[in-house]
Amino acid sequence: MLKPKAKFTKKEMKKDPLLETINTVFEKYNEHKSMIFRAGIGIIALTVIIVFLFNRQGSQQKPADILLGNALVSLDTGDIENA
Hints:
Layout: H1 10-14, H2 17-31, H3 33-77
């Protein structure tokens, strides 16, 4: 079934939904600017802490990985005493 054409008024044609959305986003940003900055700083700090912890854990794992690799090579060559 055919739908009737939507009738727009001149006032509705002058409105731009994209510009209205951008305007509301900027208004909300200006209202909550300090809270947004705090949240951003918190996220950055949390990311730095997580990266630091993972790097620290990785550096502690390297000697254990080397020893395990040496033991596996010794077992493959048949040297059970050094494994």
